[in-house]
Specification:
This protein has two domains: about 40 residues; about 170 residues, Alpha-Beta Plaits. About 20% of the residues lie in helices and about 15% in strands. A hairpin with a 5-residue loop joins strand 5 and strand 6.
Amino acid sequence: MSKINRRDFVKALAAVGVVATLGKVSGKSVKDVTSEVSKKSAKGLYPEAKKGARYAMMIDSGACIGCRTCLHACKLENNIPDEPSNMEWIDLFEMENTRPVSEVHGMPPADANVDYTESPKEGHWYLSFNCFHCENPPCTKVCPTGATYQDEDGLILVNYDLCIGCRYCMAACPYNARTFNWWDPVNPPSRVSPIDGEEVPLNPKVPLRTRGVVEKCTFCVHRIRDGNPIPRCVEVCPVNARHFGDLNDPESEVSRLLETVRTHRIKEELNTQPMLYYFTRGVKWKDDGEKI
């Protein structure tokens, strides 16, 4: 985790104090100042943003088989500890019609990562959640220190060095996409992947979090800004239910999908402009319940 320069931090506090007293300094609000400080001190945490990009994720709810491969791959890729066990950046809900039946945890069922026929519950479908990386994010507006900020490529990131654990961002998020570290995370040097049984070491490109800070999905910022165009969850999905790309690139997969399939966004009426889209193109079951 990067260290904040003491001089920069003192300057930031002074600037915030002046702004709080006078309202604005050189046309900048308190939020502008704290956001700039956060981006500057977070440079050691994340690769530099690609200006002009608009990253989005699209999930085919009809294709998802609830195998949890994305969930476990995310935990290993982003150094998300197994203890405490509720620490996850991807939430997966088993759905019946329009109502959730249960939240899915645990090990993938046998062969579910390679075969439709191992879908856990016949006739049910699965709804996957992670951070929506909203274009109009409420979380950044309530963060008192600027620890949660929106970068030049639209990604919503957390500067763990500035997070004070107030959890205002969690209260403001309408998608419940953030998790708080109530305890010290347990991060062993390596873990065995439940997907393929391979030994997976800690990822040196992803900073470890500590007790008292909030964390969430980053769209695998360390990958997409460093030559790998897709997050780990998209890469490992065995049924191609997850898609990712730059909406400002007309040739990207997500741009083409938006032109060809009917999509929707959750709680769109709140005007948060979420960058997580859902559509239904894949089908696992016939109308009579017979497997396809």
